[in-house]
From TrEMBL:
InterPro entries: OctT, SGNH_hydro_sf. This is GDSL-type esterase/lipase family protein.
């Protein structure tokens, strides 16, 4: 029974109304695992970039426990890296830990109000303005994840999801960084023998047509189902071949 190790952002577990448990049957990792007749270890977080996935590999004991029985690695991160980030990511991620609470609320509220306007303004800069993580760093962290896992499990199939699309007002509808990130991810994947899943091609009509979550970013169940089923098709024959090539699981 194959097991997938999925490192992902909130698109992996957020449905049409809210974030769901990791074992919810309709999220795409579970759809894919079910189609393959197996299971999934989902390690994910809200707003995760490729850097967060790399950190999880070294710090989350769930990953260590799953590694010996993993039959495929799915890198469902990189999409959040492409979102506008008017404030440098390191500073933005400090907002939740500001003290006192009254200051934290004021800063968070002020940033949320300013972000759409700043995203639109910065989109006119060369390259579309700053993003959460530049493409060169995204692929560097994706490669670290791939190399670390395949060093322990040689021949393991690896699939990377390309960045999705959004119509989120909180980002001013801006997604100028997506194209460059997709190009960089495709180039890295081709060089390393990683399969890619073109997420945008599967969900664009769903998301941009307003059929997903009202936040304009997360997906409805139809999109989850399509991504999960396509992932299963992509992995179908590869898992069996890799299982015979990888060391026996102890």
């Amino acid at each position: 029974m194959p097991e997938l190790l999925v490192l992902a952002d909130s698109l992996a577990f957020h449905g049409p109304e809210r974030a769901e448990p990791a074992d919810h049957p309709d999220i795409w990792p579970q759809v894919a695992a079910r189609a393959l007749g197996g299971s999934v270890e989902l390690v994910a977080g809200i707003g995760w970039t490729a850097r967060h996935a790399w950190h999880a590999l070294g710090h989350d004991p769930r990953v260590w426990a799953a590694m010996p029985r993993t039959d495929a690695l799915v890198l469902g991160v990189g999409g959040m890296d492409t979102l506008p980030s008017p404030l440098p990511s390191a500073l933005r991620e400090l907002i939740p830990v500001l003290r006192p609470e009254s200051l934290r609320r004021k800063v968070r509220t002020g940033y949320q109000r300013a972000q759409p306007r700043l995203s639109r303004a910065f989109s006119h800069l060369p390259g579309g303005g700053p993003v959460a993580l530049p493409p060169r760093l995204t692929v560097a962290y994706l490669e670290r994840c791939r190399a670390a896992v395949t060093a322990l499990r040689p021949g393991l199939p690896v699939v990377a999801l390309l960045p999705s699309v959004h119509r989120a007002e909180i980002y001013g509808g801006v997604h100028a960084g997506r194209a460059a990130a997709e190009r960089a991810t495709r180039e890295w994947a081709a060089a390393q023998g990683v399969r890619v899943l073109d997420t945008a091609a599967l969900v664009a009509a769903h998301v941009l047509g307003g059929h997903g979550n009202p936040d304009g970013m997360h997906w409805g169940w139809a999109a989850h189902r399509r991504v999960g089923e396509t992932l299963a098709e992509l992995l179908g024959g590869e898992i069996d071949g890799a299982s015979s090539a990888t060391p026996s699981r102890q």
